């Protein structure tokens, strides 16, 4: 079982068609932590070969701009292998695996990536996986999928394809249960739950999406994937602790640790009852903010 979780929080993930030079150039100047070069739905079948031919160049560009370069490959095995042979080059940080339905899907592709890393002189295991859940068939296996391979850094629900598979629409009511299933499986495996309870294709205005993000953070998500750069700053703001939050967390931790040293298991601090779970939540905030070592 995978028990790791990166102390470097990757908050915002921006999809860009892998063949669109203009949008890729634009993404270089955006504040997204991760830029996903999309070889799947974002690239027309007639242009996939052209997109693969330029992957290495764009990965280098993104890395030099301080982004974590990622590639979403295609789901069918034959095309996935072709994609990975072009994508696994120095600088690549993340591969997004779409339509994952079984832990063996993850393990087989992880083995291939390891071979490609060795051939390219890259550290084995350095390329991480973000898993995309897009079918009802995957739901009973979510815990096994999330824990299938140590290369996996996160898991998300693909709202549009999942709703299509269910025969429904991507409404918040329909997406809440599967979103929480993905979140809980990710947390159990020690990987990052990425997402929000809404359709990625219809996020409205930034102010509306900020409310969706606030709900997602309250539920336990720790990052979001979007297709339009106008939403990136809202994601980063949501998942970046403010100085006031950091200060309050430090005060809480200090007060609780002082009380524990005096034999107290719970205290009242600034009008709030503080026990171990509240203390640990404050510690998590400080770790995610880079204020504490893991």
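^ Assign residues to that structure.
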């Amino acid at each position: 079982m995978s028990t790791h979780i990166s102390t470097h929080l990757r908050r915002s993930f921006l999809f860009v068609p892998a063949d669109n030079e203009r949008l890729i150039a634009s993404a270089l100047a955006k504040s997204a932590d991760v830029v996903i070069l999309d070889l799947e739905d974002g690239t027309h079948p007639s242009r996939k070969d052209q997109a693969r031919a330029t992957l290495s160049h764009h990965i280098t560009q993104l890395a030099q701009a301080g982004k974590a370069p990622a590639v979403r490959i295609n789901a069918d095995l034959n095309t996935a292998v072709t994609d990975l042979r072009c994508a696994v080059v120095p600088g690549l940080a993340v591969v997004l695996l779409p339509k994952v339905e079984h832990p063996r899907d993850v393990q087989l592709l992880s083995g291939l990536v390891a071979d490609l890393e060795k051939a390219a002189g890259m550290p084995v295991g350095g390329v991480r996986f973000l898993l995309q859940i897009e079918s009802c068939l995957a739901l009973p296996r979510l815990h096994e999928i999330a824990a299938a391979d140590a290369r996996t850094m996160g898991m998300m629900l693909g709202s549009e394809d999942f709703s299509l598979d269910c025969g429904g629409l991507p409404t918040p009511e329909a997406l809440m249960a599967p979103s929480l299933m993905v979140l809980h499986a990710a947390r159990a495996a020690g990987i990052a739950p990425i997402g929000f309870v809404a359709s990625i294709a219809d996020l409205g205005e930034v102010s509306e999406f900020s409310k969706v993000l606030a709900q997602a953070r309250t539920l336990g998500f720790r990052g979001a994937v979007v297709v339009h750069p106008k939403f990136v700053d809202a994601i980063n703001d949501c998942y970046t602790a403010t100085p006031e939050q950091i200060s309050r967390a430090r005060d809480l931790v200090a007060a609780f640790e002082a009380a524990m040293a005096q034999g107290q298991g719970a205290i009242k601090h600034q009008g709030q009852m503080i026990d171990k779970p509240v203390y640990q939540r404050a510690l998590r905030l400080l770790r995610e903010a880079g204020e504490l070592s893991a």
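Residues 243-261 form the longest helix (19 residues).
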